[in-house]
Amino acid sequence: MARRLGVAVTTLRTWHQRYGLGPSLHEPGQHRRYTEQDIERLETMQRLIAAGVAPGEAARWATRGPEQRPTATVEVTPDDVQPSIRGLERAALRLDAPVIRQIVSQAVRRLGVVVAWDEVLLPVLTWIGDRHAATGGLVEVEHLLSTCISAALSAVPRPSPTVPLRIMLACADEEQHSLPVEALAAALAATGVPVRMLGARVPTSALLAAVRRTGPSALLVWSHDRSTGDPDQLETVLAERNRPLVLAAGGPGWDPAELPAEVNRPLSLNEAITQLTAYPTYP
């Protein structure tokens, strides 16, 4: 049962001793057996705790009849961010994709893309990244969490196809971390601004071809790691005859001292939105 739920055996024992959420069948001389009802109660307990509900309160709900149990919907408000962070961390460590998707989708819907990214999603991604750097593990956790976040961001409604595409977003050559760019695209979409997103690992030649073909008014190139933050890629764009009115370098991979003076350096999602939509030709 511990393996099935993704919790420690000691956790199951604690739930049994404190809240009575143990196996119902116990024949002398044999292993204790969980019934389907026992399993359902434990799964309800787990979902509620993942959503940020205190264990005692979660146990009270779990021991009620199915018709009286909550659906474990995660209600995220600006004053209730920490429980969402804790719930998302727990769900990610358990590789519980349904709960991850639920928490992320609720956060985006209730808080908006920018606040959800800054206050819930980015802190959890950073926490997992720090643990990976320290231990070398949790790669599968980061991949699953990123996939779920990407799906939630792509579900943000996009503006009408009749709105001109004047902003382009791309990752630097060999840069694979595209999630921040996806968050920016979703945040812009939520304000009614569509974007053309090229995604991860965009070679300089491909970036130039896209700029020449579509003539964007604003372009942001994202670099997460110093190994991909080559300013030559930006210099090449600036050398174009019909270059974008706004060229921005997003992400920690760029060395500010090496960036051309004409390149903007947004340090947050809000700054990127402001800079990319500030040019005069945008309606």
How far apart the termini lie comes to 58 Å
CATH superfamily of the largest domain: Cobalamin-binding domain
| Count of extended strands | 4
Q: So, CATH architecture of the largest domain? A: 3-Layer(aba) Sandwich
Structural class: alpha/beta
Over the alpha carbons, how many angstroms does the gyration radius reach? Answer: 23 Å
Helix content: 40-55%
Domain count: the total is 3
Give the SSE order as H and E letters.
HHHHHHHHEHEHEHEH
Low-pLDDT runs: 68-74
Class of the largest domain, according to the CATH hierarchy? Alpha Beta
CATH topology of the largest domain: Rossmann fold
In spatial order, strands of the major sheet run: 2-1-3-4
**Average pLDDT level:** 87
Shape field: elongated
Number of helices: 12
Report the β-strand fraction as a percent range.
5-15%
For the sheet with most strands, the description reads: 4 strands, parallel
Secondary structure layout:
Blueprint (H helix, E strand, L loop, with lengths): L1 H4 L3 H11 L16 H15 L4 H8 L18 H13 L3 H15 L1 H23 L3 H16 L12 E5 L7 H12 L5 E2 L6 H11 L3 E5 L8 H8 L7 E5 L18 H8 L7
What does this structure look like?
There is one protein chain. The chain folds into three domains: 2-68, Multidrug-efflux Transporter Regulator, Chain: A, Domain 2; 81-154, Methyltransferase, Methionine Synthase (B12-binding Domains), Chain A, domain 1; 167-276, Cobalamin-binding domain (Rossmann fold, 3-Layer(aba) Sandwich), CATH 3.40.50. The termini are far apart. Strands 2-1-3-4 form a four-stranded parallel β-sheet, with helices on both faces. It has helices at residues 2-5, 9-19, 36-50, 55-62, 81-93, 97-111, 113-135, 139-154, 179-190, 204-214, 231-238, 269-276; strands at residues 167-171, 196-197, 218-222, 246-250. The longest helix is centred in the middle third of the chain and has 23 residues, at 113-135. Residues 68-74 have low confidence and may be disordered. It is α/β, with parallel strands linked by helices and 283 residues long. The chain is elongated and about 85 Å long. Helix 9 links the parallel strand 1 and strand 2.
